[in-house]
Write a structure and sequence with these properties.
By secondary structure, this protein is of the alpha+beta class. It folds into 5 domains: 3-62, Helix Hairpins; 86-315, DNA ligase/mRNA capping enzyme (D-amino Acid Aminotransferase, Chain A, domain 1, 2-Layer Sandwich); 320-395, Nucleic acid-binding proteins (OB fold (Dihydrolipoamide Acetyltransferase, E2P), Beta Barrel); 437-579, DNA polymerase, domain 1; 601-668, BRCT domain (Rossmann fold), CATH 3.40.50.10190. It contains 24 helices and 22 strands. The strands form 6 sheets. It has a 5-stranded mixed sheet with strand order 2-11-10-3-9. A 5-stranded antiparallel sheet has the order 14-13-12-15-16. A 4-stranded antiparallel sheet has the order 5-4-7-8. Helix 12 (434-445) crosses helix 13 (457-465). The protein binds ligand 5U1.
Amino acid sequence: MTGTKVQARVKDLRVLLERYAYYYYVLATPEVPDAQYDRLFLELQSLEEKHPDLITKDSPTQRVGSAPLAGFSEVRHVVPMLSLANAFGDGEVLEFDRRCRQLLETSRIQYVAEPKLDGLAVSLTYEDGQLVRAATRGDGVRGEDVTQNIRGIRSIPLRLRGNDWPGLLEVRGEVYMPLEGFLRLNHEQRAMDQKLYVNPRNAAAGSLRQLDPRISASRPLEIFCYGIGAIEAGQVPETHIETLKALTIWGLRTNPEAALVDGPEGCLDSYRRILERREALGYDIDGLVYKVNNYSDQQRLGTLSRSPRWALAHKFPAQEELTRVLRIDVQVGRTGAITPVARLEPVFVGGATVSNATLHNRDEIERLDVRVGDTVVIRRAGDVIPEVVSVVSEQRPAKASRYRFPTQCPVCDSEIISDDQGAILRCSGGLFCAAQVKESIKHFASRRAMDIEGLGSKIVDQLVDVGIVKNVADLFDLDTKTLEELDRLGRKSAENLVASIRSSRRTTLPRFLFALGIAQVGEATAQALAAHFESLDSLIVADQEVLEQVIDVGPVVAGSLIHFFAQYHNQEVISRLQGAGITWPQETGKGTGKVPLAGKVVVLTGSMTGMTRDEARKALIQLGAKVTSSVSKNTDMVIAGNEPGGKFAKAKDLGVPVLFESEFQQLIHGGVENG
Ligand code: 5U1
């Protein structure tokens, strides 16, 4: 290539790479597979190696420097980075709106409601469209210069797109670590015997403050930009919502959840909706921020000493709190798995009072070195079981001794054994252990299994403790008189329970298989087995080889099924259940057109607007699909919602067909043909 041609190619490659990064990170709709991006990147890198004079500071290849820093120098913010006034209840939001209306002498205000990320506030300065400086918020007046590390965040453009940006533009936003990246990072840290981060916020802060920019660049950091600080030689729009749009056009990533809302009712409505979807966002938020939309109104409202009068953070209930460990117990699950649980001084966290938190397993107790009497951080996020996150070791009582894991089952005294890998500890008591019997009955009766309404945990405990029920088949022998004698169960409830046990007998084969509680057989596997064999009899007689033909059934699941059906007492229970009248309609798994995704391996990514993730997953299972979590060459289809992320890119890369939400909805309602 001639010198001019090389120059032109280098320029084209940069434009293409910037464009692809923009579509991938900012618009979340990748234009090309990752492999294509990588190819062009390598081409640019090799041209720059041969022609170093063509290297520019804003080239996509020049994001990460190699020299570790001695420290971070101080940066003074030209416009202070303010903090936000907090509200914890609806009343405070109404009061905020009343005050704004009064000061503005208006009857109605439009606000922008946007998620408040639990990350690290930063300021990015662009001069003539080039990123020249990035700083942390610090105390709001002085922060640290983290330019080298910010350059490593690929969703932050090194130069702005278009040409209508102000000559000097200081953008503000929150750097955060998505939950998936946080879990992956901690997994890697553990593998390398490095310190674990307690939460995504600490991981984001720790990653951005690495002195080696290469380490920082390897961390899964992202940004959402939410406003503008200093500005010269140019203008920004007149409203906040328009500014967010302008930022996106200039190549900066803004939160797609930000929305213009009307009055305090609009704010509170957004709050409730986002609170419901909080777990599905893929990143931690600790509330919503409401901002008066109109900038001239913002100016008239002005700021108090540290926070603007025109904005309010409406916080979610705290998800982490401190409390004390009173005792450590172990619980025995349906399959005998032993789970340690911390009994706590009750504490209000994540919107509920919590007095128990899981300690997961023996290794986790050892890792945390949690002891009775310790002050601990516990976390309760949404419906997730509360867990102990860390120990405040400075507050440990002098005589607290190390926890010794039991060697015998606390319920039946059988020996506790460890499985092949030594990761899971189990009670060896089997059906001799009342705890395992109770849990297997609770599972059998649960909503997604036989769905026996009214058979709650307390009733099962009593039935097993007094010896009336020894296995799930005994449930179908219960009568009103027997049940009436149990504590707290009147005649009416006893009658209702007998009726719901009777009506549970009409079920489906997948539900029945799932209800049996066979190790390794969850809902999706039960669905696949039912679709494949279409009858219980054919499943029971299937050998290892035949079983492994079922999609996603490998040697372990097949072995578990064979072991289960070979046990005499399991055969007896199944035959008693059938004798009690449990029936299901003939499986019409293949070729009927009712289950268009029969046997297909499907992956869900991104959030749906019309349904929760769990609803989407159930709809897929109903359509016959096997829902898995990661995309591979075995995946038949990916369903992509909003912000689909890496799985979407991988699907495109591997040529896996992708269905968007509208097409998925059509499929649910019987519209799209599937090949
Ligand atoms: N989304 C969002 N987060 N956040 C934090 N907007 C936003 N605005 C802030 C802060 C501290 O401050 C400005 C209102 C000054």
